[in-house]
Amino acid sequence: MHFQHLFKPLLVSCVALSVASSLQAQKIDETYNQKIKEYTTDTRFLPSSVLNLADDPKVSSPLKHFGSIIGAPGVLHHTTEIYGYFQKLSQVSPFLKISQVGTSEEGRPIQLVTIGNEDAIKRVAHYQKQLALLADPRKTTAQDLEKILGDSKPVYYINCGLHSPEMGSPEMVMELAYRLITGQSDEIKAIRNNIILIINPVSEPDGWDKQVDWYNRYTKNRTNFEDGFPRVPYWGKYTYHDNNRDGLQMSQALTKAMYKIYFDWHPTVMLDLHESVPLLYISTGTGPYNESIDPITIGEWQVMANHEMTALASQGLPGVFTWAFYDGWNPGYAFWIANNHNSVGRFYETFGNAGATTYVRDLSTQKYSGDPVTSKEWYRPDPATEKVNWSYRNNINYMQAGVLAGLSYAANNKRVLLTNFYQKGLNAIKKGKEESPKAFVIPQKQSDPAMAAYLVNQLRGQGIEVHKAESGKNQGDYVVMLEQPYRNLAVSLLTKQNYPKEAKFPPYDDIAWTLGYLNGVDVKAQDTLTFSVSDLKLLTEDAKYIGKVDGEATNYVINYKAQNTVLPALYWLKNQGKSTKISVLETKTAVAGVKDTLGAGSIVLQGLAAEDAKKIASQFGIDLWPVTTLPSTKQHELTLPKVAIYHSWFNTQDEGWVRFTFEQRGIPYTSIHKDDLKAGNLKQKFDVIVVPKMRGSASDFIHEIDKKFGPLPYTKTAEYPSHGIPYATDDMTGGPGFDGLDKLKQFVEAGGVLVPLENSATMIAETGITRDLEKTEAAGLFHPGSIVQAKARQTDSPILYGYPEVFPIFRGIAPILQTKKHNRNMMVLQYGTKPLKDEEEYKGPIMGLPDKKVEKETKKATPKKEEPYVLSGMVKNEQTIIGHGGIFNVPVGAGRIVAFTFNPLHRYINHHDAPMVWNVLMHWNHLGMGATEK
User: Fold this and answer.
1) Same domain, 212 and 294
2) Residue 3: inside a domain
């Protein structure tokens, strides 16, 4: 007998009686109620907690304000309408206010909504101050703690609309806000009185408006969700889905706004609302969990998820699950801003249709952590059926019911949450005092001192305290003392990651982020302090490296060590219209008056004014040495190229990161696409074309979006004003075609340089522009984003100027390319330090030749210690990639293809790899030097 069927009506009746009792004095909006029921496709998808919205005489509901309820079919609102509604609520309710916390790259405001009782709204600054005290236990005595806990409120931060086609949350929170400021049930009043809710309604406003326009322009009337129709090509100006991978870089406007929110409020809980899997996933993660996270947080993940699952189960909602789908390792997601700073970071994944249209969705092939999403498991006690008729309102229901359950938990457990928040900071301080390391030192002497200052500023942006040694033997060094609340984050960022090879499920994303390696900065952990704390002074503003210019002359040299700012400085100099001659030394050279031997790639500036030398030093953090006698060793003149960055309309993810990197560095470029390839004459316009990483195969590169969907304009119009940004086209479909591909080949043959990155290198090889590269398989290789060793094969190649023979690079999951053995001189850089098996020296007998005489060894040689391949992260079956090519320099006609089989411009985080691209640009017309000519 199934007892659950006996008890369910009783449970529902009890809930209904409770709700009815608490709402006797309040009028219910029955029209709104009826519309919710009408737009919900199945009563099993209708939780009781989203019904019975108040009919408030003073405050307009979404129905009264917009003319339709939230979740109505075909109805979406632009950011101005969403913000306008919240503005309206703030004018009529004492429980809500709205303020701007940022501005997007395209100029749209990023707003923050605050909800609480009148006391909370009036005393916002007080509660912010209280949470700031709890965030840093060093500022709080044991006697004061009880008083602070008694006069504080947890802040619950809900982040919405980060991924633009995930379209439920910005709409849902309008209804949620109305419910919270007008409701008079005991549950709603407890939320309003006991916690402060802050909502970022549209954290990616640029992308949201583009998506709303895309829905209205193209997809509103689709009848089949799986028809392959293309998605909107751009969200933000630079980032697409990766805007949720910017938590460590802090590079985008939306991330900076979220950090401002965090440090203004120190929210106790952060919940990021996403959509992707059926029907609602509540994050905990399969593990392995990030090594730096306090066990208290891990416990809180489980408690909150199980509370919400139970609350939704009590309302009869199927398809709710936890544990599976995500791991809990990478700290770079938006919601990890909270986890990294001793709060609780969480996320939902509800089931969305990328708009307000109802579709029958097939779940039969979806699996997470090895199990079908329709299977009954300990973490999914009530799965959905293999097909569901899914509406926009269903999504709103699930999301809002979960959020209400989460807010109730916070309201009823506010002291526990606040105490845990304080305790995690206390635990971190204690670990910093008692455990190793005790500190990190970032020496002032670096190959690229400007990047050392950049790293310091990244740490400070995370709230990590950094000191500078003002005196003593470490004078000028930066020091991170670990007796501080964010000690765990500092250790995570500055030490290697140890992802377990035996993990049962593959990682969700990159698994290594050691910032010293990624920035090319030497960072030293200290178990025993080698300096006096009295010599240290806390940094209160950003670090900046000012380059040294020891004296004045008309000629200067830059000792090139792959500094990120050298190429930008040369472009700046060119833009000044100066007649300075720029030359590059091709070998190591000792020059009178210069302290160190100049490395290959060092820059000679002839006819440089002393004033300009000082500006380069100041603006770009580069040391310049005045010289009276010019070097006479072999050198070539440097001609800065005209650069194009190619973008396809079917995949703009990494192209945006490349554009962002170029702009941040001040490297000029022109953005081109399929129509530019078809137009031809590319060599007359450009010297170098960079092809950012793209997904897919050669067919995708050639044909891009299927012509059956065309013509498909992406243009700005009066009706769709957000489109056509950052680029426009009258038809997104069709790709460059074979004609455009031939024009690209002509560009290379005429002397141009083509620089494809990661998978794009494979795509280019598959097109046949070069036949010297081919895809090769590595049996069993699993290479999630990790930091690994690479070795120069052609040490004299300009592509590797400034780098040592062996150095770290970042590599993720990507194809491997190789040449025939007789073309291995095209391999500039290899993975690992050992050669490929077919390159190992044969020492056996050779038939037809006299046997070699083997001299007796008088002393057994000590075997050379092999460099490890993995420096941070994990690679399975690494032996299958060691020896394969990381960079190839392939001659094609009069030009070159410089193919990177990793991504040196990955998400604006692996800055140490980027100068290899800058080297290609600087020496674009001298890439034939070295081994490729032998």
Assistant:
1) yes
2) no
Mean pLDDT, residues 273-284 taken together:
98
The residues, any chain, with a CB within 8 Å of residue 344's CB and separated by 6 or more, are 268, 269, 270, 297, 300, 301, 304, 338, 417
CA torsion through residues 759, 762, 766, 770, sign: positive
DSSP letter at 730 equals S
Q: In terms of pTM, does the model score above 0.70?
A: yes
Is the alpha carbon torsion for 295, 300, 305, 306 positive or negative?
A: positive
* 3-state SS class at 480: strand
Beta carbons of 669 and 645 less than 8 angstroms apart: yes
- 767 and 826 in a single domain? The answer is yes
Query: Which two tokens mark 749?
Result: 């043959």
Distance CA 786, CA 872 (A): 6
Residue ending a domain, among 599, 619, 637, is 637
Residue-wise pLDDT for 117-151, tens only, equals 999 999 999 999 999 999 999 999 988 999 999 99
Q: Which of these, 369, 390, 320, 375, lies nearest to 348 by C-alpha position? A: 320
Could you give the residue ranges of the DSSP H alpha helices within 314-413? Answer: 336-339, 392-412
Residues 798 and 666 in one domain: yes
Closest by alpha carbon to 425, among 490, 493, 343, 346? 343
Q: Kindly tell me if the per-residue pLDDT of 168 is higher than 60.
A: yes
**Half-sphere exposure at residue 342, Cβ-oriented, CA atoms within 13 angstroms:** 29
Q: Tokens representing 928?
A: 């034939």
Domain boundary among 637, 667, 694: 637
DSSP code for 436: S
The single-letter code of the amino acid at 26 is Q
CA 180 – CA 54 distance, rounded (Å):
10
Number of other CB atoms surrounding residue 68 within 10 Å: 16
Q: Positive or negative, the Cα torsion across 740, 746, 747, 748? A: positive
**Does some domain include residue 258?**
no
What's the domain count of the chain?
4
Contacts of 871 (CB under 8 A, 6+ apart): 496, 512, 514, 517, 786, 787, 788, 789, 808
User: Tokens representing 597?
Assistant: 């031997």
Range of the domain at 457: 435-538
Q: Are residues 904 and 759 in the same domain?
A: yes
> CA neighbours within 13 Å on the CB side: how many for 549?
23
Place of tokens 């802040």: 155
Q: Is residue 850 part of a domain?
A: no
The one-letter amino acid code at 476 reads G
Residue 638 identity (one-letter amino acid): L
Whether 786 maps to a domain, the answer reads: no
Q: Is the peptide bond before 726 cis (omega within 30 degrees of 0)?
A: yes
Q: Which of 518, 401, 520 is nearest to 450 (CA)?
A: 520
Contact at 8 Å (CB) between 274 and 348? yes
Summarize pLDDT for 871-891 with one digit per residue, the tens.
999 999 999 999 999 999 999
Residue 189 exposed, middle or buried by CB count within 10 Å (0-12, 13-18, 19+): middle
* CA 364 to each of CA 123, 349, 372, 373, 908: distance values in angstroms, whole numbers, following the listed order: 51, 18, 7, 8, 38
Whether 824 contacts 773, CB under 8 Å:
no
Type of residue at 254:
L
224-260: b or e for each residue (b if 16 or more CB lie within 10 Å)?
A: ebeeebbbbbbbbbbbbebbbbbbbbbbbbbbbbbbe
Report the alpha-carbon distance of residue 520 to residue 562 in Å, rounded.
9
3-state secondary structure of 325: coil
DSSP string, 249-269: T--SHHHHHHHHHHHHH--SE
Q: Are residues 492 and 575 in the same domain?
A: no
Distance CA 871, CA 512 (A): 9
Reported confidence tier of residue 858, pLDDT bands at 50, 70, 90 = low
d(CA 116, CA 189): 9
CB count within 10 Å of CB 369 equals 16
Q: How far apart are the first and last CA of the chain?
A: 83
Looking at the structure, tell me whether residues 501 and 569 fall in a common domain. Answer: no
